[in-house]
Design brief:
This protein has one domain. The protein is 70% helix and 0% strand. It contains four helices and no strands. Helix 1 packs antiparallel against helix 2. The longest helix is centred in the middle third of the chain and has 17 residues. The termini are far apart.
Length: 80
């Protein structure tokens, strides 16, 4: 299941989302990308393809990476 060192995945997700940001992805989509990356990493790496646990753990990792507050704020704001 989830080990303490899996928390190190959060900075990895942050880095990948930052790459997407620099590639020109609009800010409002970045929280969704973080969530999707978290779920994929949770299912594939953390829980070894245990779908239910992977989605829960991955959602926790993705939401932690994006920041629940800032992610919601960026999603609701209009694009500039």
């Amino acid at each position: 299941m989830f080990e303490v060192y899996h928390v190190m995945i959060i900075p990895l997700i942050l880095g990948l989302v930052e790459l997407c940001k620099r590639a020109g992805v609009k800010k409002r989509y970045l929280p969704f990308i973080a969530l999707l990356l978290g779920i994929v990493i949770g299912v594939v790496y953390v829980t070894n393809f245990n779908l239910k646990q992977g989605i829960i753990v991955g959602a926790m990792l993705g939401l932690s990476a994006s920041g629940l507050y800032s992610g919601t704020k960026n999603t609701m704001e209009s694009d500039e």
